[in-house]
Amino acid sequence: MHSSIRPNSHIALRLPSGILKILEITPNTSINIGKFGVFPANSLLGRPFYFTYEVLDNDDDKSKSELRIVSASELHAETLGEHPTPTESRDDVNEAGVEFDIVGEDGEVIMRSNRLTIDDPSRQTLSMEEIEELKKAGTGSGKEIIAKIMASHMAIDEKTSFSLAKYTLRKSRKYLKRFTVLPVDVGLLTEHFTEKEAYRIMELRQEHIGLIGSWSNAHCANSSRVLFGEDGASQIGGGRWLVVDDTGGLVVAALAERMDILYQNEDDDDDKESQEEDVAPQTDNAVETPQERGHEKLEGVVAAPEPANQPNGMAETEATASNDTPAASTTSDQPQRPRRPPHQHIPQSTSRTNSITILHANNQPNLSILKYFSFDASNPVPNHPLYHHLRTLSWLQLMSPHDDPTYQEPEKLEDDALAAMKSSKRGNYYKKRRRWERTNMIVDETRQGGFDGLVVCSVMGPASILKECVPLVRGGGRVVVYSPNVEPLIELCDLYSKERRAAYVSRQTDPAAKVNGKAQTGIKIEGQEAYDALPEDDEEDFPVNPTSLLAPSLQTSRARQWQVLPGRTHPMMTSKGGAEGYLFTATRVLPIEGKVEARGSFFRGKKRKTAPDAAVQA
Amino acid sequence: MASGENQNEDFTSPTPSIFFDPGTHSASGRLGILQLKRDHLIPTILSSATESEYAEGDVVNTRFGSFPHTTLIGQPWGTQILASVVDTGSRASTSKKRKRDADDDGEGAHKPKLEPKKREVVQAATASSGFVHLVPPSPETWTLCLPHRTQVVYTPDYSYILERLRVRPGDHIIEAGAGSGSFTHAAVRAVFNGYASEKPLANGTQSGNRNYEEAITKKRSKRYGAVYSFEFHKPRAEQLAAEIKEHGLGDSVTITNRDVYEEGFCVGSQDDNRKAPDADAVFLDLPAPWLALKHLTRSPPSAAVVKAVTASSEAPSPSVKEDDPPAQALDSSKPFQSALNPNNAVRICTFSPCIEQVTKTVSAMRSLGWLEIDMVEIMSKRLEVRRERVGLQEEGLRGANASAATVKEAVQRLRDVEGRAKIFHGLQKEKQDEIMRKAEARKRGVKPQTPNGNDRETPKAIKDNIPPSKHDRLERAKKDLENRDLFKEGRLIHRTEPELKTHTSYLVFAVLPRQWSKDDEQKARKKWG
């Protein structure tokens, strides 16, 4: 993550109303935050995050407004409803508490209680038109308006101190020309989407993202070893996670963040360095605007982007005469690429460790949220870590690769035949070959399994996904399934219930059932084999192999927010409803063949009943 | 892919911690976790050593049987392990194996199952029942089975905390009040991004990637993730340090036994600035986090602020108005050294069970310029899923409710009962009548008639129509059970688990932006206009 605001990156502004506004900051443009004002983007560039700025309007030219950093003490004074110096706040805290006590006991300050409060909008003597006038005339930060509004409230001194603080706060939210700059990361995006379009991210909250990250055991595995199973071909572990993601890429982003493959190389730790580096590296700047040029290209292969498809980049170059490096390098970089000899192509998705493999139901994965991290799945760039560590394949490619045209090897041409080709055709030829090579590698490796974990966040039925994917997870690997609603996961838990497992085992070992106890033994898994071993009608009773997961559990978590103010600490009065969000977690295990007799008492003790893994009673 | 493997062999850097890369199989000398039940796990350092009290070498004894380490070593992770027949009885009376050999015969009564004893490790025989699963360690499994020394920060809390603190690979995090180390393990997983001693290029990556990785490493020296852990209680700190070392996490975790209220968070010598934690995130699980906050500033705090912050617990002292010079009380002899990363915003989380602690912490944070202060509590629960069977067919069976499932069933049962009663009374009456008749006949001096066939037939015909007795019903239920698939019968229900953690702690989050001086602003202005 970057410590200061970089050009052409996404940032978030939190407006006084609490709304988050995500935008891409482009040098030499102005940023409009509606009624809260307009200011030049350059006055934010290079500045650190988390400061709150006040827009100081410039009367002559709105786009030349200045920004002022609002100090922490000023902000806190406002939340506390006081006007202190930084060190004072604590004393005022106590005063406020005292006042509150007196209200109950002492008749003299009774006017501070709400007994005499009159609920009447006419008590505000300023009319709406007058306020509009003030707003138009208003220079400054909006403080004058608030002061005037307060002054014209007939009964301001009848308010209790708490209600006065509340009133002031409400007015500030409406009129203060302020915003806070926040970095765009997974947490912020979650918050943003939860507010606006929760359905797009399957109503994930930060609690869930945290739990998914922890239970999937996703972590940076760039120093993990490449190890193979007993067959010597299928990789076991190595920090590879299999993901089914219908949240537009939010879950992928969350996992990638934990695996250190989400953000591009951080290079601006101190100012001197960053100044040099911002000018020097072409590579870095070339990726700043991929999402602009990405739309037209769908083939997910890095090859020969036409220079024409980036109007934004061009516009930028013209605009940034003084600050030409970022945009200029973007444009100059593009036309060069086709001319490079083909062997310089950097193969995609080659990393054998620390990778995410996405299974998608459509032709292309939906990873639109990754654009906030400068990654465009349909047109990835080699200097983004995800270019190397992200693999995508469709369900068709997993289940039946030979039905997928991209899995068929394209015709291989001799060198002289190639030389005779037109360059555009030759480019096409290479593009096809590369796509085939990549698909082939991804499909084969995925089908060999050995993943460290499976993360499912999908609208598809979890059982159907787990049936295919659990065999691809290594022994001891983690399985995590998120669902906004509890019902699908309850059904899933039931498919892995202790009773069902017992029935499954006894059917498997029962010689009468013509099954020869063909449990999955090795690490090498061939998809359905285990299921084929069971008679047909068992498919219905055992859509998944209930012995392959240990300790299936279902949990949910919710953060309850509190207001902490002196004498006024309590949970928030309202919060968002909607989906509760549930998580199914389990560990992939390798059951041994044949009948296994459990031992110990399984009837509930004082604590903890029905541990689902309490063993199989024959 | 033999080449890939070979590359591994001559890979000189340390083997990654078992928490990050457990390998394919369990191995001697490394940690393994035996999972008995969902929340019952036993951590064990697997050992192939022969010096043990048991003939089979080291053995893990559980309620599901005994598991000699020899049966656990070299197994693929996740394997189901069968219990072995181990003589646990004789060990109880003697501590040494050699002694036991001598005493062997006299101890027969103690030994339910006998196993031949030899000096070398005995190949254990598989027991007839009992098993566990062998799983690799992770912060989650470790949290469930670590030796408790203090209250443990559980997964729902630490996962949320690390998410909110935005702890990422390569970050430095301060943890104070390390306690039992569950958060430590989760934090080190979050910050880990490789070993400083390792070659820049990890194994197996192919050429294109190699160029890319090299480009990255060349660009600038990589910052490696680190956890700076502080613990006030010396034995706890030592035990945690031993565990961390055992788990191969020593490279990334620094444990210091210290009172952070007094001494702050800087480790290493004072002149060596590099040694400071240089933290991006802070987690305080302390009884009085506000007393530690004064050590988490970017510049020396003024004495007034320090006084205000630290005096929070005492009576209000109204006289801190003067513009004070930087606090000398802190440590006048040493130059100020910040424990925070100067180039990054620093995030903090404090973990306190009581609301009073929160109030004090928040007001201290406000005085010290922390922003985005937010307090939440995490309410998490686990659900249990099961099938609830209700119905008359469940009569006499375990784990089900044998009441009528529907009105129809209830009515039918009532009818049955009534029907039986009616027939019973009918029969009674008949019997009575017969007795009466017999008595009458006797009185009249007639020889009592032997009951003819007709008399017998009537009750038999009725008997076929008699609703089943309770005994019959139980018999039938038992018989039916053999053909029922209980695992898919009944209604699927879910409910909160019986033991509920209704409150763990309040979490206070805040952010301290980097310092932004006039010079910095000038520079930025010059660059961007």
From TrEMBL, chain A:
Keywords: Nucleus, tRNA processing. It is found in: Nucleus. This is tRNA (adenine(58)-N(1))-methyltransferase non-catalytic subunit TRM6. GO terms for cellular component: nucleus; tRNA (m1A) methyltransferase complex. Residues 290-299 have a biased composition (Basic and acidic residues). Residues 319-333 have a biased composition (Polar residues). Belongs to the TRM6/GCD10 family. Residues 267-352 are annotated as: Disordered. One of its GO terms (biological process) is tRNA methylation.
Automatic annotation (TrEMBL), chain B:
Residues 1-24, 88-119, 309-338, 440-478 are annotated as: Disordered. Residues 107-119, 454-478 have a biased composition (Basic and acidic residues). It comes from Polyplosphaeria fusca. Pfam families: GCD14 (PF08704). Gene3D superfamilies: 3.10.330.20, Vaccinia Virus protein VP39. Residues 1-16 have a biased composition (Polar residues). One of its GO terms (cellular component) is nucleus. This is tRNA (adenine(58)-N(1))-methyltransferase catalytic subunit TRM61.
